[in-house]
What does this fold into?
Amino acid sequence: MTSTTPAQRALAPVKFAYWVPNVSGGLVISTLPQRTSHDPAYNVEVARAAERVGFEYALSQVRYAASYGADAQHESTSFSLALLLATEKLKVIAAVHPFFWHPGVLAKFAATAQELTNDRLCLNVVSGWFKDEAVNLGVTWPEHDDRYVQSEEFIRILRGVWSQDGYTQDGQFFNVRDITMRPQPKRQPEIFQGGNSTAAQAMAGRVSDFYFLNGKSIADAAAQVRDVSAQAALNDRQIRFGINGFAVVRDSRAEAEQVLEDIIAHADAQKVEGFRASVQEAGNASPDRKGMWADSEFRDLVQYNDGFRTGLVGTPDEVARRVLAYRLVGIDLVLLGFLHVKEEVEAFGELVIPRVRELEQRLVDGEDLQLGAELDAAVEQAGQAGGVPALV
It folds into this structure.
């Protein structure tokens, strides 16, 4: 049985996001058929369906050149704006690389997008893992920790020109002088970032609104929530957390697990290994050797952001209980990938999200829930380890 504190019972409902398939090849590096498309019209249909069934966010991917199963790709910011203009409530997170943008130019784009979309654009500032793409496009590739310095300078300029007149900033990577920008957004875009290293966590604590975790167990997610929250507390800030997960929801657990194993069995080994080489070079380049993907195995990398590790595989009831367990250790948003995107977005919204909302309400009403022995133990262990500082 999961016993909860008053603070846990008062938690805001967990939010849901989905990966936008704006690049070809779907969300797994597998030859198993995927009923999905990077076509704009298909993506508008997905966005409208997601909005209808309870998703609050979507995340568009950023890739500029063919690679690792993504042979075609649509640019993230323009694609995000198209989805925003085709929906009414959905927030779309556009992924951007600081080394491909000047922050003043992106700040202007984002301010205009906020005017056009009732303040629904968000930004995911990606410090970078794909060295070959960057170098082949002619930009300088800083060392691992310097990329986080670059990202922090980038974010500070965004926030500065969005909120101040005559903004000036001198940095290692970017300099701006006496910039006054109109219109300044009435509501600044939420800033997301990912990462795993010490440098990533420290940056998140200083400047970001959301910190994305790659797929992790409940215990590992709780530990990272604790560590990044401590960094934010050093700066008198609070930060929210998202986790990546690949959802396979079927009528039985056996059926869901078989789908997962089929995806992995049909992995395109050459492309997975190419992806592994790029991301683990980036992950192991951090001084602490704790960068993203540093410990990922082959089966993890069949899904780009270790989404299988989150374990969202089973019946609607099983997946809903596991989502709630992540919420209880401090996860605010679950970012989901799917094999057949549109139909599974709809099914998740119709079958899983209502079950999560029911469980949340039962917590609010003071009920100690039985999530199952494994999940109850994981949540209890996280609490005993001090892994949920945001909840107390």
In short: The CA atoms of residues 34 and 366 lie 42 Å apart. The radius of gyration is 20 Å. The chain has one domain: 12-247+255-307+329-346+385-389.
